Amino acid sequence: MKINAMVTTPDKDFQKQTLNLAEPKAGEVLVRLVASGVCHTDATVLDKTIPVPYPAVLGHEGSGIVEKVGENISTVKPGDHVVLGFAYCGTCDNCLEGNAGGCENMIPLNFGGKNQSGVTPLTTEENQDVSLFFGQSSFATYTTVAESNIVKVDKDVDLRYLGPFGCGLMTGSGTVFNSINPEPGNSFVVFGTGAVGLSGMLAAKIAGCHPIIAVDIHDSRLSLAKELGATHIINSKNEDPVEKIKEITGKGAHYSFETTGVPEVTLAALRCLRVKGTCATVAVGKRDLTLNVFNDVVANALTLRGVIEGDAVPQLIIPKLVSFYKNGQFPIEKLVKFYELEDIDQAFTDSSNGSAIKPILIIDKEYKA
């Protein structure tokens, strides 16, 4: 079938093109996309931090409606509302142990341009392959995905808000719920109050953490963090966050969550911890981090933990996040700003300069919740 998509090439970030999309084969689902979040991982492809084969259709926070299913599909049917998660194999040791975020095939399946069958469902009108991204390529009007990419959600929830649950908000919240798993009363610090950081902070609030400290350099984002549940906020341009955190907590924080990828911030996220504390990081950064292993880690028996996709299984965590959204514990409407698909360049600009915390592209303008 013919679809419209925003195609990325070495010469142009985004160009609207007509592409061919393969019909769903056995184990695959055709989805009409309603919306897609814009994620920092998409931007890391544009700036060449993470390589993917070109041309490609990016986007990996899609939400939409099932249009057609291939053979042997048991979890969804046409008309179902779905959120699209990342691609994972389901058969490696980590997947079988319930940690799809640690899938041993994560890189080839999400960044290699092909699906688990070793092909891409996307081609140009001249029959040139176009890379699939995260198994979904959601900057398009339709997508053909594996059943494992699909998470069915309630039809009474506005699909336009739900796409970011498939990556950014799952990563932030999953890091708290799955990776560090704090106990009520544990102290928690988030460095960087973008969508990932704020979703981690909201999860920390649900988990009963106290105090909850937000660190950033933008007062507007810190004000939002305070509104959403931070007990303390620190502008690290104006005061030393390590000293302030130790003043607030007494011994240092139990847990820190680093989302920026800035080496100096990562060091602060380690140095603000109490003895036996844990720093979890999900960041993608260009600069190397230099630290003294003894002074910065061993001397206080600290843990520095890297987390991918919140150590989550999309089919388990996304329904929980939707429930939290429905009951008001996850007010994502306060994080998002809507854009039309044709305004994708502006959405990325606003994400980069901080004027939009979580841009969402509206793909189906006719959709009504």
Automatic annotation (TrEMBL):
Gene3D superfamilies for the chain: Medium-chain alcohol dehydrogenases, catalytic domain, NAD(P)-binding Rossmann-like Domain
Q: Which residues form the Enoyl reductase (ER) domain?
A: 16-361
Keywords, alphabetical: Metal-binding, Oxidoreductase, Zinc
Report the leader peptide range: none
Report which residue ranges the record marks as coiled coil. Answer: none
> PROSITE patterns in the record, alphabetically?
ADH_ZINC
- Entry annotated with the keyword Oxidoreductase: yes
Claim: Mitochondrion is one of the keywords in the record: no
Alphabetical list of Pfam families matching this protein:
ADH_N, ADH_zinc_N
**Cofactor(s) listed:** Zn(2+)
Q: What family is this? A: Belongs to the zinc-containing alcohol dehydrogenase family.
For this entry, the protein name equals: NAD(P)-dependent alcohol dehydrogenase
